[in-house]
Structure formats: structure tokens, C-alpha cells
């Protein structure tokens, strides 16, 4: 890592989080057309001499309560976490489920079988040219951040470009209604309820105004597209103005990406990996020597067990130009994007998967970083 300075100690750590963290489940389902709705009890149909128990608040596993009743539970939990009442009221008053958010969520495209085609769609010549321009335009700032966090600047720009088109397309959805909608939906209630509460904590800290807290339909915010919990853990105030602004401040955007990767064990003296050739005659031997991992997110499960580069060389894997692999003491895993294309990836690649666990994404980051700096894998 580069030389230490005052900014290193001040900004190379996550911003403070506050509040009582409660163990919760949740939540409640959205009522769709044609779905049965639980009707209230008609008091007139019950014998007069039967005592009626006081209605109970829905439990964390209730999936039928009306949205307003569910939202009241969120209010109460936010207050228990120490979020100021005026912030809770300002953020949640008048919030209703947003139907188009659910439509977008349920219309997500399935991962492409041919990941190489997906990569080529992302890494257009215009994208590569833009990455080169941004590296030059922010050169001095990126050098300082690279020295502070030990993450090579080309990867910061590549992630920035893929996440928000270099800050141009960071999302326009108001975050609180978006997260409330996703949290009320029964499929990932626990995850998004926690994100909603984290977003309220961000507002309570004064890092962003409610009207300016915008992002994607999936709940990711700002130019690095952080989920609210990731913001609380990794967002950086690199320009030391008192708040981590991942929406409009390049210094904070780059530093936040860098700190995220650093936290996930990025090595400053390594790259991400390289394209390779795998002879068809050696595929059976390779499958036996390095089977899929089978654990972790889907992309990690698909990766081979890691082997030293020297072993891959012995197994017949070659550089993209057909020559022997370099003599470097490093382990690597094999990733296939289609039947004819493969990569050997190093530990830094796994940090990229922590950002977005998809091979199409992580490979696009690595290749864009290389293309933007003229790196040619031979």
C-alpha cells in the first residue's frame, strides 16, 4: 500500500454507524389482483356475550397485513434504533408501494448462458474510450486514492463506468418508497427491510437530504451503486467535508469503491486474472484436478478449485497467444464464459465478485480496466 498520510487514518475506515441493531424477520406480502385479501371481522356477526381480544400487531412472519400496518412496524423499529422521530415521519409519511418497482424486480433478465456475448455488449469501443478519458481527467485524484487504499486506479474507473456510466446514470428512483416496496414484497423481506432501516439511518446522520436520496429500482444508491448497508459500512468522506457523498463528489465515489475492495482483501500488487486457452484434449484431466467449488454465491460455485499457476501450466492451460503461463507464485481458478473461452482468475477477482456476484460483471470490470490502460494479454 502507498505512503500513509493524515487522510489515510481519517478516511480509510468506514463511517460510524449508530443505533441499536435488532434481530428481525419480516415481512408482509403485496396484495396482487386476484389474490385473496384477509377481511376484518364483522362484529355484528359475533354473539354479544363473546369477549373480543384486542387486535394484535402483525408478527414478523405475517404476510397478509395491510401496508400501512406493516409500515407502522417499520416506524417503531426505526425509533428503537435511535433514529429521530422527525426523520422517521418525514421519510415514511405518505409512502405507498410502487407497482412499477415490483414489475421491474420481477422482470429481471436471467443470466446469459453465453457470458462472453454479455461482456462484449458491455465493453463497446465507446465505453473503453470513455474509461480512458476519465482516467486522464481524474488522474491526480485517482493517484491519491490509489496511494491511500492500495487499489489500482484503473479498477476504480472500470467499476464506476459499469455501475453508473461514469456517474451519468446513477438512478432517479426515490429510495424510501423503492425500498419500502421491495421490503413489503414477501420474497426478500428481511433483506430489504434491513436496507430500508439503513437508509433511514443515513438520513438521520444528515449525509443526504431525503429529496436527493435517489438510486436504482433495485435499491442501489449513488454513482458506485451501494446498497444502504454497504454505504454505512464502506462509504468514505475523502474530501473531509463532513459527509460521504457518493452521489455527486468524485473523491468520495472513488474512495468508497476503493475501500470496499480493500475491505474484501484486494491486493495492490496483483491484477484480476487473464484470458487463457484450454485444449479440448485436457478438459477431462482439468475437471478432475480442479472441480467446481460448489459453495458460495452462484458465480463462486461455478469457479474451479484454486490451483497454483504452475499446476495449471502442467495441465496444459496456456496464455491467450498459446505460450506457457508465467512463472509466478500465485493461485488461480478457472472460469469459463462459453465452451471456447476461459480465464484464470486470481484472488482480486473474488473481491470483484463481492461487489457483484456475476462472472459477466467481474470479467467486464477486469477487461475494461485492462483495455483502458492498454494492457494486452498475450
Identify the overall geometry: globular
Q: Based on helices, strands and strand pairing, what is the structural class?
A: alpha+beta
Stretches where pLDDT is under 50 for at least 5 consecutive residues are 1-63
Average per-residue pLDDT, rounded, comes to: 85
Kindly report the spatial arrangement of strands forming the biggest sheet. Answer: 4-6-7-3-5
Order of H and E elements: HHHHHHHHEHHEHHEHHEHEEEHH
- In percent terms, what proportion of residues is strand? 5-15%
| Number of DSSP helical runs | 17
Query: Could you name the CATH class of the largest domain?
Result: Mainly Alpha
Total number of beta strands? 7
Give the full name of the CATH homologous superfamily of the largest domain.
Bacterial muramidase
Q: Could you estimate the helical fraction of the residues in percent?
A: 40-55%
**What is the CATH architecture assignment of the largest domain?**
Orthogonal Bundle
CATH overall fold name of the largest domain: Helicase, Ruva Protein, domain 3
Biggest β-sheet description: 5 strands, antiparallel
| Rg over alpha carbons | 24 Å
What is the total number of structural domains?
3
Q: What is the terminal separation in angstroms? A: 28 Å
Descriptive key words:
single chain; Helicase, Ruva Protein, domain 3; Lysozyme; 3 domains; five-stranded antiparallel sheet; two-stranded antiparallel sheet
Describe, in plain words, how this protein is organized in 3D.
The chain has about 375 residues and is of the alpha+beta class. The chain folds into 3 domains: about 1-10 and about 25-30 and about 60-110 and about 170-220, Bacterial muramidase (Helicase, Ruva Protein, domain 3, Orthogonal Bundle); about 110-170 and about 240-270 and about 360-378, Orthogonal Bundle (Lysozyme), CATH 1.10.530; about 275-345, no CATH class. Helix content is about 45%, strand content about 5%. It has helices at about 5-10, 65-80, 85-90, 100-105, 115-120, 125-135, 140-150, 155-165, 175-185, 190-205, 230-235, 250-265, 285-290, 300, 310-315, 345-355, 360-370; strands at about 175, 215, 275, 305-310, 320, 330-340, 340-345. A 5-stranded antiparallel sheet has the order 4-6-7-3-5. Strands 1-2 form a two-stranded antiparallel sheet. A hairpin with a 2-residue loop joins strand 6 and strand 7 (about 340-345). Helix 2 runs antiparallel to helix 3 (about 85-90). The two termini are about 30 Å apart.
Amino acid at each position: 500500500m502507498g505512503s500513509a498520510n493524515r487522510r489515510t487514518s481519517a478516511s480509510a475506515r468506514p463511517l460510524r454507524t449508530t443505533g441499536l441493531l435488532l434481530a428481525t424477520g419480516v415481512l408482509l406480502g403485496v396484495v396482487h389482483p386476484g389474490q385473496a385479501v384477509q377481511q376484518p371481522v364483522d362484529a355484528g356477526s359475533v354473539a354479544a356475550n363473546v369477549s373480543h381480544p384486542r387486535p394484535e400487531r402483525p408478527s414478523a412472519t405475517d404476510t397478509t397485513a395491510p401496508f400501512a400496518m406493516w409500515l407502522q412496524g417499520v416506524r417503531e423499529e426505526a425509533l428503537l434504533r435511535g433514529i429521530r422521530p422527525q426523520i422517521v415521519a418525514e421519510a415514511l409519511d405518505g409512502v405507498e408501494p410502487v407497482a412499477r418497482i415490483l414489475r421491474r424486480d420481477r422482470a429481471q433478465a436471467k443470466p446469459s448462458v453465453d457470458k462472453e456475448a454479455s461482456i462484449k455488449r458491455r465493453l463497446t469501443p465507446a465505453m473503453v474510450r470513455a474509461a480512458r478519458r476519465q482516467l486522464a481527467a481524474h488522474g491526480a485524484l485517482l493517484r491519491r486514492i490509489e496511494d491511500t487504499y492500495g487499489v489500482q486506479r484503473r479498477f476504480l474507473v472500470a467499476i464506476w463506468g459499469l455501475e453508473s456510466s461514469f456517474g451519468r446514470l446513477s438512478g432517479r428512483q426515490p429510495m424510501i418508497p423503492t425500498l419500502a416496496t421491495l421490503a413489503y414484497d414477501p420474497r426478500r423481506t428481511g433483506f430489504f427491510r434491513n436496507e430500508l432501516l439503513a437508509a433511514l439511518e443515513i438520513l438521520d446522520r444528515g449525509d443526504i437530504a431525503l429529496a436527493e436520496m435517489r438510486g436504482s429500482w433495485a435499491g442501489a444508491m449513488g454513482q458506485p451503486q451501494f446498497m444502504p448497508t454497504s454505504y454505512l459500512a464502506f462509504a468514505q468522506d475523502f474530501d473531509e467535508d463532513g459527509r460521504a457523498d457518493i452521489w455527486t463528489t468524485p473523491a468520495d465515489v472513488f474512495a468508497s469503491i476503493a475501500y470496499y475492495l480493500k475491505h474484501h482483501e484486494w491486493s495492490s500488487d496483483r491484477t484480476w486474472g487473464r484470458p487463457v486457452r484450454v485444449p479440448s484434449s485436457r478438459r477431462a484431466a482439468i475437471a478432475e484436478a480442479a472441480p467446481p467449488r460448489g459453495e458460495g454465491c452462484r458465480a463462486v460455485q461455478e469457479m474451479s478449485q484454486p490451483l497454483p499457476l504452475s499446476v495449471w501450466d502442467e495441465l496444459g492451460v496456456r496464455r491467450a497467444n498459446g505460450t506457457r503461463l508465467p512463472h509466478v507464485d500465485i493461485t488461480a481458478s478457472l472460469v469459463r464464459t462459453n465452451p471456447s473461452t476461459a480465464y484464470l482468475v486470481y484472488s482480486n477477482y473474488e473481491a470483484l465478485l463481492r461487489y457483484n456476484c456475476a462472472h459477466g460483471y467481474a470479467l467486464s470490470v477486469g477487461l475494461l480496466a485492462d483495455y483502458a490502460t492498454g494492457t494486452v494479454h498475450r
